[in-house]
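So, can you check this record?

>
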Amino acid sequence: MSLFSVRSLAVSATVLFVSGLGSVSATAADWAESLFPIKTHQFGTVAVASDTKFRFPIQNNTDTDIHISTVRASCGCTTATIETDWVRAGGTGSILATFNTGTFRGKKGATLTVVIDKPVYREVRLRVDGYIRQDIVFNPGSIDFGNVRQGEAAAKSVAIAYAGRDDWQIVDIETAVPFLKTELKQTGRGSQRVNYNLTVQLTDEAPVGYVQQELVLVTNDRSMPRVPLRVGGQVEAGLTISPSAIAIGAVKPGETVSQRLVIRGREPFMIKAIACEGWDCEFDPPAQAKSTHLLNVRLTANGKPGEFRGPLVITTDGDSELTARVLVTANVREK
């Protein structure tokens, strides 16, 4: 086979792939670019040794699986990590960019070259930039709550050290969510050094799921007054329900359906109530507290006809009351 024929086959394969990209309006040049809805990120001004990261999301809206072979950074100030090498058709993934604040100072930036080798070879360039202050140090570099049970509070502290002006101070701490509370105490001042201790509390109102937030330290530094501090963790549900969704299907008003549920908790518990708006809920209360309950819940439609979508709420008994929800869908028909 001639070299010309081999090249022709390669071009034909690429054209066939591009023509099958489904919902993505793409050409051979831009289908890979469409995988990354965000291509640039500004870390802003950050402290020395702060845990500074950003995940570039990947959204594969094509009908073909994508494989990412490598990602390289143009500067050692940033470490790039492939978190999802195979991004399935219709699936999502991410590339993690970590700003190396422990070893670099000043204005830094990097181009991240993402190499896709399947179904065809393409490169996509991402960009991060920021300024690493050498006069502020966080220890540890971020607030990490780890795993916290729903309904429980947790607290972590970070030491903040500044070297520079005698009159430097933190004047405010901004947070975008109500379930993070802060307490700041000055622990030292003198010889052009200032020290603070910041305690961050995750309140018992924090929702289930990952905590990925930033606190912003507002200082009296006119040139760079705002310094972010990363806050992470995961709030775990005190109760889990299986199945996680109940699809009843078609049912008439007054008709009763039965659904078996498995309810698990970390510790033995009793069930106080099961309720779902638009339905009468009946169950046989368990005789004793257990960490796992198998229940047959009887649901009787008492609402208006039509499509129904809403939560079934299970509440436990005892001093530490917990709730869990499971989605119910149904089509309530006319009698």
